[in-house]
Amino acid sequence: MKRIAGLSALALIISSTSGCGWLWGDDGYFRDRGSDYLQATQEPPMKLPADVSSSKRLDPLLPIPVNVADSSVKGEYDVPRPQPLSVTAELSDYSLQKTPDASWVLAQHPPAEVWPVARQFFLDNGFRIDQERPQTGEFTTTWQRFDELSDSMAKRLGASSGTNGSDTQTKLRIRIEPGVQRNTSEVYVVSAVRPSGSTSDVDWTPKSVNTGIDAALVDEMLASMTRSAEKGASVSLLAARDFDVPSRITLTADGNGNPVLNLGSDLDRAWTSVGRALDQGDWRVEDINRTLGVYYINLSEAPQKADDKPGFFSRLFGTAPDKEKIEARAQRYEVRLSKVGDSVQVTVDKDINTVAPADIARRVLSVIQDNLG
Predict the structure, then answer these.
(1) For the chain, what is the mean pLDDT?
(2) For 297, phi and psi rounded to 5 degrees?
(3) Which of 273, 281, 307, 334 is the most interior residue, by most CB within 10 Å?
């Protein structure tokens, strides 16, 4: 029936566009009425009878504008094409975000891609890496005097802190966290400062203390990242791949024999890495719920690409995917992430109250494990 309806609609379209003047001509039923107003005539204002008085003024409901370019023009009128709106704020790869207490860089890339770019910026400016924890998205630098850094960085930090380059040491902690939206990142920089020769260490706090130095570092990092993006600089795929790979990945079973994938990672890193692993699978990720830590997958449907949309004739003749058929063959499951101690457990459920069959759960978790490696 769908094909017959599609053919009928196509026949109607063809017939209606081939010489049917009674429909589309100048005098047709569906004629263009866009210029009818040019034939309108102006009537005199309404007047009340002489024996009727009214305290309310009678103003015309639809007055003709007085600034019409030419009211005597006759014939067809072509509506001018509207000018494109000017873009006031383009969405760039990297942008600056601010609050009264802090500033950070928002990147339109997942943390795994931002990690090597941020790390390279600090190395290029003379900072030495002290500790790296890709699984938690953090790295720190060693204690260094300002004059040990690159000339431009030393001048910028000295001006921001109002201190001499040889009299002050600084140490940095850089955090790269998943952004609110998927495949975005937030990069934070926190500094510690001490006099040269001091041996005191630092207890890191989430809140910035040296706001001037931190703001200067974020500004310089943003400028460097933007330049790299404009030049089309490539990301180190090896560094990106190692960014949020859990330190330990084991596929075991719980007390009831249900397969469980254990990841040595924090929940944010695990969420990002599992999401990327699911995207590489042979199924479709239909929805996500970051608050509940759940990915909703459909094993009966292939991954959907951004340009996978049915064309006009597919929709017209009924060859587009039928929702009823999709629902009939659907195999929907929930991939759930749960924080357990210092690790994250990944399980596969049919719904919140029912675990998935062991063979299906093991199959899904095995693919995730392979794609994480």
Answers:
(1) 78
(2) -120, 155
(3) 273
Q: The domain 245-372 is classified under which CATH number: 3.30.420.150, 3.30.310.170, 3.40.50.1860, 3.90.360.10?
A: 3.30.310.170
List of long-range contacts for 318-321, beta carbons under 8 Å, 24+ apart: 318/2, 318/3, 318/6
Give yes or no for a contact between 240 and 116, defined as CB atoms under 8 angstroms apart: yes
**If pLDDT is split at 50, 70 and 90, which confidence band does 54 have?**
low
pTM (2 d.p.): 0.50
Per the DSSP assignment, residues forming a β-bridge with 348 are: 335
How buried is residue 163: exposed, middle or buried, by Cβ count under 10 Å (0-12/13-18/19+)? middle
| CB distance 175 to 188 below 8 Å | yes
Classify burial at 342, counting beta carbons within 10 Å of its beta carbon; exposed 0-12, middle 13-18, buried 19 or more.
exposed
Q: d(Cα 109, Cα 185) in Å, to the nearest integer?
A: 6
Closest by CA to 174, choosing from 223, 212, 143, 214, is 214
Burial 54-72 (b: 16+ CB within 10 A, else e): eeeeeeeeeeeeeeeeeee
* DSSP H or E segment with residue 339: strand 332-340
Q: Residues 94-238: name the CATH superfamily.
A: Outer membrane protein assembly factor BamC (3.30.310.170)
Q: With 50 as the cut, is the pLDDT of residue 89 above it?
A: no
Cα three-residue angle 219-122-142, rounded to 5 degrees: 120
Name the burial class of residue 39, with classes exposed (0-12), middle (13-18) and buried (19+) by CB atoms within 10 angstroms of its CB: exposed
Task: Indicate the DSSP class of residue 151.
Answer: H
Structure tokens belonging to residue 61? 């409901």
pLDDT band for 249, please (50, 70, 90 cuts): confident
CA torsion, ordered 112, 116, 119, 125, to nearest 10 deg: -150
Q: pLDDT for 109-129, tens place per residue?
A: 888 888 889 999 999 999 999
Residue extent(s) of CATH 3.30.310.170 domains in the chain: 94-238, 245-372
Cα–Cα distance measured from residue 112 to residue 371, given in angstroms and rounded to the nearest whole number = 14
